[in-house]
Sequence to fold (348 residues):
Amino acid sequence: MGEMSIKHRLPERTAPERARYVPALRGNHASSRRPVTGRIETSGFNLGYTLAGGQVFRWGRDVDGWWKGVAYDTVFHLRQAGDTLLYRAGASRVATYLGEMPVAVFLEWYLRLKERPRIRVPRTDGYLRRARDRLKGFRFVRQMPFECIISYILSVQAHMNLTKRRVNFLAESWGREIEFMGRKYCTFPDPGALARLKGPYFRSNRFGWRSERVAEAARFVSGCAGSDPGRLPLDDWREIVDALKKQAGTGVGLKVGKCIDLFALERLDAVPVDTWVLKFAREWYHVKGPDKKVCEWAEARGGKYAGYVNEYLFAYYRELNGPSLDDRVISFCASDAPSAELPMLDEG
DNA sequence: GACCAGGCCAGCG
DNA sequence: CGCTGGCATGGT
Fold:
């Protein structure tokens, strides 16, 4: 079994290109100290649904029951026991595009713990009612804009698992190492770091035809974002992404653009239309046509929380018709056990 | 060994 | 505009 998983890993980074880039230290210098631990009381929140929903690529469920991941250059271990969210963090403060926050405040913001997405469910729509009830407690995570941009460009026509591997490959190759509880993690690289890489680099690492697009997008964003992209305000990110959408060749079309809007730019009315959305739109609602038309239909119908409406239906349809998502992250979780056999949440 | 995957894009009508 | 194929790679 061990040899099997090795075979499926991406090749190691090529040494010469690595040597040219030395990541600048930013933010959390305190991360080498002991973990910052605590607990947060929540209500109506479900950590498992939130982190396994398929939005994020750098979180995984480990055999010890903890969700482990890196967000905003900080390592987190999270688990939910009833309505209590337990955390261990690599720093006491976390830098975001809104400024620095104490870790508990950050988690409340990142996971939208206080958000109550109230969607309108037509009395006649049994699918939506069941879908919403099925995913109670799910929240969209506030992803780091640049990480989100690159991740979703890489996600095009690729399974989640492969996308996770590619995203983590970039982090391990070009991010900054963080040690946390005896284990190495990596931050997601800055635009400047990826902007130095060209198409052939990604080609040689088997990114396929996403290669030129990632390179082009990173170069474009790096050119806009300036010297301190970590603190660029949200409005600037919105401008950058809107410009990116108009720039052909960056891999940001309708679907990827909507993913970034929804997952990183606070546009909860955005609906990414993928193959699954096309299917349930056709089968359940008799809406056909090109992606653009289905997107307009879904956004008009869902209103300001159209993104949540879509996510509920997406998850429900996939649960009925598609393969289940693997919620591990290979690089964080050593076990080769199928994720279905990993311990789930500590309820009660 | 087909066939498809959380699309995008250039090249056509 | 809207439609179609080609695109690299890995999984089933």
Confidence is low (pLDDT under 50) at residues 1-31 of chain A. Residues 63 and 342 of chain A are 6 Å apart (CA to CA). The longest helix of chain A spans residues 306-321. The domain at 15-131+139-267 of chain A is CATH 1.10.340.30 (Endonuclease III; domain 1).
